[in-house]
Input
Amino acid sequence: MDTLRSLSKNMKIEGNPFGSSHQRNQIFLKSVAFFLLVGLAYRLLVTDSTGSPIAKVKTSPESIPAADSSRLTASSVAQAPSPVYSTVNITTTAASQNASTKCDIFTGNWVPDPSGPIYTNISCRHIQEHQNCLKNGRPDSNYLLWRWKPHDCDLPRFNPFQFLDRMRNKWWAFIGDSISRNHVQSLLCILSQVEEVEEIYHDKEYRSKTWRFPSHNFTLSVVWSPFLLKADTFENSEGVSFSDIQLHLDTLDPKWTHQYPNFDYVVISGGKWFLKTSIFHENRTVTGCHYCQGKNNLTELGYLYSYRKALRLVLDFVAADPNRKTQVLLRTTTPDHFESGEWNTGGFCNRTMPFKDGEGGEMKSEDVLMRDIELEEFRKTRVEEEQGSNIALLDTTSMSLLRPDGHPGPYRYPDPFSGVKIKDPVRVQSDCLHWCLPGPIDSWNDLMVEVMLNREN
Output
């Protein structure tokens, strides 16, 4: 403004207001300069006061080596392009704004993804034999070329670089049954493409394990607790019960509760184990059973009774933590895809394509009822929590229901049809509950990060 005043002072003319021709030219040029400077000053003032509220996000892409598609099948397949990851903070991604747009990331469809998985059964050494479908001879690989797409938004693909960076000096635990183990192996396979992990603990049965990513000081655990409650189980090496399970409905399993204060993040879940024959104990008294078939004149209370009791006890325990340091995800039930029987009665799953939402796949009644209990008890906890809750829902049920093609089926065993002319799936025991690795369960991690880490911010 001092410059403008100086220009205005110098432009004052004494005597003849029109002056000479030379003077008039000078006046004209100075007038033009004056008004240009005034306009520029006004523009700068307006721009500063009405600037765009949208922050510009710069990204710097970095990629993980692509999974070599030629390794996925015995036949030669063109190599998939490398997935590209942005180093921008996770919370700046499009799907991270779901909270404001009210996008339901749990409902959607599986859409083609020619890039495929970021690891293979060759590049990952953490795959359990029963889920190593390609190694065991599964002939098709189309089930690897899909990604989960919510109806109303895009979901970022899991970025192992960002995840490990966020997990420095943290401890993440999965608590549950063999589906939790399946999930943690998926996560290990993805993360090990960035940094190889070291196993630092396992129990006698190798069911509970702990790993450490040394350069990030990140600890990852899976805690075997299929009932989440204190339970006395009696099984042979094949997992078949030879005596009734004794289930204590008023006592949580100390295997995970004693470690809970150490955890920063927890994914916890129940499931199919509640369908097993069980004797219920409460207040040191036998109160009933599930599927005990009239033994000892016990009252048949059913699996829904024990499942609701277990979830209520778990959620109350989590909510009672005064510090609420641990962020918890309650993962919903996993539907199976056995057709024409169950796992022990010739049931099989030989589909090679996903279902579309609303066009195929119906949950079995027990899965529907168990999921209803999960949602009811979760909502009850959220209502009771007056302040910010440290419990969120990881609803993988709908997306999993649409993937009948993602299970090992008969390829839980190596070359199950070796020496057999007709590949009859009924003649081989199939696994239509767990997931091939790589496979659809890898997409659970996309949802897990979105709900857990972006909710945190």
